[in-house]
Structures are given as structure tokens and as C-alpha cells.
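User: I'm putting together notes for a lab meeting next week and I want to include a structural view of one of the chains we've been expressing. I don't have a solved structure, so I'd like a prediction I can at least talk through. The sequence is below, exactly as it appears in our construct file.
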Amino acid sequence: MPPLPWPIRSIIAGTAGTATMTLAYALEHRLRPEVKGPLDYDDSLVPGEIVAGILRLQDVTGREDHDLGLALRWSYGSAFGLWHGLLRRRIPEPWASAAFGGTLITATLTLFPLLGRTPPPWRWPPSVIATCLGTHAAYVGAVAAVDDGARRLSLSPPSC
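Assistant: Thanks for the context. Below is the predicted structure for the 160-residue chain, given as C-alpha cells.
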């Protein structure tokens, strides 16, 4: 079987990272049943509200905001894997993942206040910051592991 091209590997890795992030939220919700609402802004309706605002959608319901947010998470989460793949082609690990994680968390901490009208990060509760950092670290770790694992499989010689 021919090796997968790096963009395909990276999109698959981004999808695995998004699945890991989604599972991290589900696990944290189970471990913190006293929290009845979202754990952080990525876990809220804010991503869907951002999409609705950009697309200039009127009268969007909470359910539609939720669905738009999920569509955003799965599309940008998968595509963001390309950024890791590009960095990985130019920088060795762990530096590629550090740069990738830095880009991701910088985007999160700036775009929510700018586009989602959330408070600035220094006003976020410590639990929100902890969840944000933890779920994004899980995403970065999964992307790096899957991308690197698929890369090694593609570079290994075929067996007879």
C-alpha cells in the first residue's frame, strides 16, 4: 500500500484530535457533575454564535448555535491538523507540537473575546482556563501522536 500523502495524514490526525477533545469534554462533564453548564467557551454556544454572526444568520436558536458550533469544531479541528503537518515537515518534534499548541491556544484566547464577545482571558475563572488548557493539550497530543504514528508507518519499508 502506498504511503498516505502528508496532507491526508494531517487531516486524519486533526480529526483524531477533535475526537479526543470531544471525549475530554465528556469525561470532564462526568467528573464534575456539579457543573450544570458549559465548562469553557469552546464547550458553550459561543462558537455557534460566532459562526451565525459571520454568516449573518438571523434568529438562530440555541439548538442551531450548538449545531453550528459542532460543525465548526469538526471542520476547523480536522483542518487545523494541516498546520501541525506543515510544522512537522519543517520542525522536529516536540517543537512542532509546541508551536502548534501555541498557535492554537493563542487563537482561542484572542478569537473568543474578539469574535465571541467573551471577557478577556485574564477575567476567565480559573476552572475555565484549566479546562481550556487541558482540552487543547489533549487535542494537540492526539494530533501529534496520530500524525507522527502515520508518518512513521508511511516511512517504514514494506514487509515481504
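A couple of points you could mention at the meeting. The mean pLDDT is 91. Residues 6-33+72-152 form one domain.

User: Perfect, that's what I needed.
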